[in-house]
Amino acid sequence: MADRKEDAHPLVKKVLNSKPPIAKLIGFDVEEINQGHAIAVLEAGPQHANPMGTLHGGVLCDVADAAMGMAFASTLEHDESFTTISLTINFLRAVWKERLRVEARVINRGKNMGYIECEITGGEGQQIAKASSRCFVLRGEQLKR
Known about the structure:
By secondary structure, this protein is of the alpha+beta class. It has 3 helices and 6 strands. Helices cover 21% and strands 41% of the residues.
């Protein structure tokens, strides 16, 4: 968890205090969010299968995007938010039923932009997928709906 939960960004606090709707829908858990780093886990199973019976790639994209987003959120000031502006994923092996570890790290955090990488591994440490994203920091008027 964050080093000092009380000092964490409101987005991080929200995720640490209650499971986000997308996490409930897909069935993943966020285990850690801390200083540009986040870990999520997913028990992949038949409920996540594509027509071929393997884990649907979109599920991996969702979990990777969530982990990378939380890693990036942990770098924000309290008056900032963000939006993902690009997401790339490379699938390395098929998955049927397995516990997956999704680990994201902020590689570069500039004033307005960040670059994040994510590695998804299986229960025995084998690489399942690698993802990356770029996030844009929102401030002031950009935060209004």
